[in-house]
Amino acid sequence: MHGLIFADIEGIAGIWDLNDTDRCKDLYTKEIQVYIDALIENGVEKITVCDAHDEGDMILDSVVSKNVRLISNSKNLSFVGEQYDFALLVGLHGMEGSTTIRAVHLNFIKSLTKGSFFRKSKNCLCIST
After folding, report:
1. CATH number, domain containing residue 8
2. Could you report the per-residue pLDDT of 13-34, keeping only the tens digit for each?
3. Taking a C-beta distance cutoff of 8 angstroms, is the pair 57, 28 a contact?
4. Strand arrangement of the beta sheet that strand 86-90 belongs to
């Protein structure tokens, strides 16, 4: 089974000051690691993590293992030759004062549900704290 974790930092628990880079990286990486651990414990053999925040350099390489691949920036996420059994959409957010999810995230979600990126079904779970 192959899972995709598509994550953005602003929706991660405890993040409120993006200027505190070290703290943000630590919290972001720890939360993503929780999802990775849970997926592996439940039989997922392959996980692709996409850090969709700006340049994609906020999730630390410590999450990478033989089962986990880290992709920096959603622009580098290719669906050519890749199929997923499900996707976790983590930390996606709206602009300040907005009542909806950011257009860039919404367009990504729409592309997931329209494409042939999923093997059997189009399973997405959006997690925002």
Report:
1. 3.40.50.10780
2. 899 899 999 999 999 999 999 9
3. no
4. 68-72, 46-51, 2-7, 86-90, 124-127
